[in-house]
Amino acid sequence: MTDIDQSSKGDSERGFFRIDDELRMNWIKLDPDILRSPTDRDDELRDLNVELHNLISTAFGDSAVLGEAMGLLNRKIELLTGNGDGPNLDLKSVAVNLSGSGLAFACDEPLHPEELIEITMLLLPANTIVRVQARVISASPYPDDDWAYWVRVKYEPRQETATEQIVQHVSLRQMQNLAARRDSASGVDGGTEES
Q: Is residue 167 part of a domain?
């Protein structure tokens, strides 16, 4: 489902589309007194990742196979070079509601309003690792038995590179969902058409 996130109500701020999705992700609590500042190398790697993500998304629009292959190669390079914590990256498949301004996700541990966390997400099909700092807005009981809590967070300011990657992912997933609905409505089976 796609909705507009209206959490940004200022005149100069825009709302973001949001999607229900399932992401591979994890999170850690941050001590606000000991925030990590990115190095120049980290900044350059993030910038390169954004540019590569743009190209992979474009390629995916032209050819799903080519886009997925490029995404897998990108992820393989990250694992081989140790970028993104390499093989130690422990990501779980989690139900989320994702937008460019925040995230709601299922978890088993209670979080409290105003807690600061760092979220690591794997965005598919580009296989891009995104890290973003966020502040907890609320936590409520999860409606199903799979998880204990549904946690809502808002991204901290000045993380434009990471949030742009998330916005691009949401847009790509929206296009995929619309294409799947269109194909389903027109009776297209697996993308093949009879002449």
A: yes
| 190 located within any domain | no
Decide if 96 is inside a domain: yes
What is the Cα–Cα distance from 58 to 7, expressed in whole angstroms? Answer: 29
How many domains does the chain contain in total? 1
Residue 99 CA to residue 69 CA, distance in Å, equals 25
pLDDT tens readout for residues 67-84: 778 877 877 776 666 555
Is pTM beyond 0.85? Reply is: no
Residue at 182: amino acid letter: R
Residue 10, pLDDT > 80, answer no
Question: Could you give the 3-state DSSP secondary structure of residue 126?
Answer: coil
Helices first, then strands: H and E counts in the chain:
3, 7
Residue 10 parent element (H or E): none
CA 9-23-53 angle, to 5 degrees, is 80
Residue 192 placed within a domain: no
Q: 89-141 pLDDT, tens per residue? A: 689 999 999 999 999 999 999 899 999 999 999 998 888 889 999 999 999 99
From residue 132, alpha-carbon distances to 30, 63, 119 in Å are: 12, 29, 5
Give the count of beta carbons closer than 10 Å to the beta carbon of residue 176: 15
| Residue ranges making up the domain that contains 162 | 16-174
CA contacts within 13 A on the Cβ side of 122:
25
